[in-house]
Amino acid sequence: MEFLRRALNPWGEDVPIGVSWDLIWAAVIIGAVFVVVHALMVPKKVATGEIDESEAKGLPEKLQRHTVGARGFHWSMSATMFALLITAFFPVIGIQFPWVTIHWIAGVLLILTVIYHIYHVFAKQDFWTMWIDRRDVEEGKLGLKAALGQSDAERPRAGKYPVDQKMFHHVAMIATLGAVVTGILMMFRIDNFLLPMNTYMFSDATWGWIYVIHGVCGIGLIFLVIAHVYFAIRPEKRWMTWSMINGWIDRDRYLENHDPARWTVDGSSQRAEAEGD
Amino acid sequence: MAVIRDMIAPFELYQPAGVDDAVRLMDQYGDEGWVLAGGLDTFDWFKDRIKRPAAVIDLAAVDEIRGIAEGGDGGLDIGAMTSLTAVAEHADVQSRYPLLAEAAGLVATPQIRNQGTLGGNIVQDTRCWYYRSGWPCYRAGGNICYASTRRAMNREHCIMGADRCVAVNPSDTAPALVALDAEMVVASSSGERTYAAADFFIGPDIDIERMTVLEPGDLLTRIVLPAPREGARWYFEKIRDRKSWDFSLVTVASMLQVQGGVIQDARVVVNSIAPYPVRMGAVEAAIRGREPSEETGQMAGEIAVEGARALRHNDYKIALTRNLVKRSIRDAA
Amino acid sequence: MLDAEIIQSRRGGFTRRKFIKGVIAAGATASAAGYLFRSSGVLAPMLSAQGAVERLVTLNVNGQQRRVDVPKHETLAMTLRYQLGLTGTKLGCDRAECGACTVLLDGVTHYGCSILTHTVRGREVTTIEGLEDDGVLHPVQQAVIDEGGFQCAFCAPGFVMSMVGMLDKNPAPTREEAAVLLSGNLCRCGDYDKILNTAMRAAELSRSRA
């Protein structure tokens, strides 16, 4: 297996021209192995049902986890992401169709979606809810021990986002931004009405690395999407998946999985303040 | 253009005696195998050492796909290994498919027509010199088209159908066969498939590394011509810089079904303006029900070049296409 | 290795099978075996597959049976010039463009630079050396002398072979038809007018001899 596709350019220089397509299968296989191993090793966590009734006081039955804007972003991103991955990799593995135009238009839509997300995060949401702090690290350590079956370990309740979701977000963010930035540059190499053709912006080697980064990010996203979809359909996480569709979670799930001190939703805010978090 | 590097690199040579054996060898070697028919496309690649297959499968002894026979339903069945001379000079081809006889007779030079095959002429690779110089362009698996960069020399390149790659299909017989509604019979280890000639060629938007539907292991074996249409008029014109040897700049092939002075049905196909022979569907629809006159031709020519986009050095091809399509309707006989 | 069943003559009559057995009997296997051992272990078993060719071939050149050891990737022009010493066939462009390498295969003109020697096994190869018949020049050769047809004459052997092929096809061409039939050859001296004079004279001589 090779990692790079290389070629001799007209000046006889050995330059990279892209990532090896073997890695597509590597990503698919690693994703499948990850899913199988995880499904076998981590038992479905049974809901404890132990809810501290005092915490439930004053909370509505349904608590909003994702705003309409956030959900809109998520599904817009997932639609464009699927379009991008399908148009990128299906032709390579033999399902051929005219893909370039769909690919770059989907890429432009993804960029618009990401821009909206960045605006939304800074203007409407709390940027720090996705930040990994010391409590997240602790949560992650204990969560991992609990998942691996260490009897005494119990996973502490999370903030708005569990630490694994935060980590997924950051890795997906890096891969997406990598693909977006290189993708914008690659638009200078194809015929489109947004950017003028200019193949002379960089040297062949630099262009090659841009293609490599685009490919690595894209192939990384194959794995990330496999993992993300797998967790979304796991039975004990479906309440979270539903919240990405309808926006809310019910009170019991909230209290069971989230620390009201770390994630304050409407109705619990007064008490959180009173406790002087 | 091409750097003359050396003698041909060594390879294993097979001369199978039948299609089955050939296909088996092609399967065995996959990407590492190379099918040799007339060799006029092959040896440039080999001498430049750009293509270095492990095995060459020479079809010279596959007699079952050489020759012209009566097909079913009053058509003709032409083996892919039939030489272009044999096609051009065959009495039945001349009398029933003069369009194909003319096209085959205008390929390259007498020697090349004696040696080159109809199948080879159909499936030949593009002549874009950036590609054939062995540069890592899209068609060679790379990530750039050297022929569409700002300073590129692209006088012979395409005016439509481009998708990153701007190379053209150079075949003279391909547009004739599309205009004749021919069928291409393809053998592989999984059996025989048949394609309409128009579907046999694919553009870079679908696969930037191939000109036709053929994949490693596929062998074009026969070209099946349907029975000639009664009273069909035809036109073929190949424009090239030299009257001999040269590849076409623009080639037009048309078949018109005229009854009562009115065009009932038409096939208008232009090659060397796109990475595949372009069947001008809009033109065919527009001229149906009209007289094959100067005016109809004029209109057809305008429609033919709608959406055409010239590169830096090939805008002449737009005018050429417009005029050739006009002639192919006005002067069809 | 020598699966004789599959090595058949392309044109009936002469069987390759017999010939190869004959060569083996003569103990001349060294070359083929040497090739085998040089090739990779992967390729060796494949050699027994259908249709693999042997390097030792007999070529029918100018009416003679010539035994020769031909690499599989060698072109006919190379074999003629450098193995059989028939240097009358020229290599100009080596790209099927100039026609200097034109030879006849079963009487039909081909570019010798662009056909594998192995492909012409069993076919009659005629080069310019084979035109003369018992000291009598071929009408085309005589016409070249009569008309002083060429200037530097590097292209001459190719043109002559093309003219022979042309007369076989069209014994009485017009000057225009001759130009078309000879359009697969180039003359860098630009001597086409005299070359066409030669072609017309050759046709005349050919007809008068027949």
Q: What features would you describe in this structure?
A:
The complex is a heterotrimer of chains A (277), B (333) and C (210). Chain A is built from 10 helices and 4 strands; from the N terminus they run E-E-H-H-E-H-H-H-H-H-H-E-H-H. By secondary structure, chain A is mainly alpha-helical. Chain A has a single domain (4-42, 56-271), classed as Up-down Bundle (Fumarate Reductase Cytochrome B subunit). Chain A has a two-stranded antiparallel sheet. In chain A, helix 1 runs parallel beside helix 7 (204-233) and helix 6 (163-186) packs antiparallel against helix 7. Residues 268-277 of chain A have low confidence and may be disordered. With 333 residues, chain B is α+β, with helices and mostly antiparallel strands. Helices cover 29% and strands 20% of the residues of chain B. Chain B has helices spanning 19-29, 42-47, 84-89, 91-96, 98-105, 110-115, 118-123, 129-132, 173-179, 197-200, 281-287, 294-304, 316-330; strands spanning 12-14, 33-36, 55-58, 68-70, 76-79, 183-188, 191-196, 219-225, 232-239, 250-259, 262-271, 278-279. Chain B is globular and about 60 Å long. The relative contact order of chain B is 0.13. Chain C folds into 2 domains: 4-130, Beta-grasp domain (Ubiquitin-like (UB roll), Roll), CATH 3.10.20.30; 139-209, DNA polymerase, domain 1 (Orthogonal Bundle), CATH 1.10.150.120. Chain C has 8 helices and 5 strands. Chain C has helices at residues 16-25, 30-38, 43-46, 76-83, 139-147, 156-169, 175-181, 192-209, and strands at residues 56-61, 64-69, 102-105, 108-111, 124-126. Chain C is globular, with a radius of gyration of 20 Å. The model of chain C is unreliable at 1-48 (pLDDT under 50). The B-C interface holds B 2, 4, 7-17, 21-22, 24-25, 28, 36, 39-40, 43-44, 46-47, 54-58, 60-61, 63, 85, 108-112, 114-115, 243-245 and C 6, 8, 10, 39, 43, 46-47, 49-53, 71-75, 78, 94-97, 99, 102, 108-111, 113-116, 118-119, 162, 165-166, 180-185.
